[in-house]
């Protein structure tokens, strides 16, 4: 999905959240946070706007760490601690909307880094013929 589509989906999410959660949709910090959060996960690709500002693609593969619930919590928590509640909520709404519109069926990316370790499967040993 392109960045503009993520931004548009986040605008809808902020509108719905303002009606259901009592968030002020006119708060500049919610709007700025939502805008940043909606494109922040794509810092792991060099072709995105955020990837040109924060080159996370040098460290992470696309749709790995930055496309996880852990990263969403980390980014929104840091924004909340540094800039206040409204910015944290905005980042969280934008980030979460990005993850959902990219595809919630990608459980492996959602649960990163918990899914780093591959499960070992048992292989059957050949039975000797007597």
Task: Describe the protein in words.
The protein has 130 residues and is an all-alpha fold. It has one domain. The chain is 55% helix and 0% strand. The chain is built from six helices and no strands. The radius of gyration is 19 Å and the shape is globular.
Number of domains: 1
Instruction: List unreliable stretches of 5+ residues.
Output: none
Spatial shape: globular
Radius of gyration: 19 Å
Mean pLDDT over the residues: 79
User: How many individual helices?
Assistant: 6
Percent helix: 55-70%
The assigned structural class equals mainly alpha
β-strand amount: under 5%
User: First CA to last CA: what distance?
Assistant: 60 Å
The description of the largest β-sheet is:
none
**SSE sequence, one letter per element:** HHHHHH
Number of strands: 0
Q: What is the structure about, briefly put?
A:
This protein has six helices and no strands. The protein has helices at residues 3-20, 28-39, 49-53, 69-83, 85-102, 107-110.
List the helices and strands and how they pair.
Elements: H1 3-20, H2 28-39, H3 49-53, H4 69-83, H5 85-102, H6 107-110
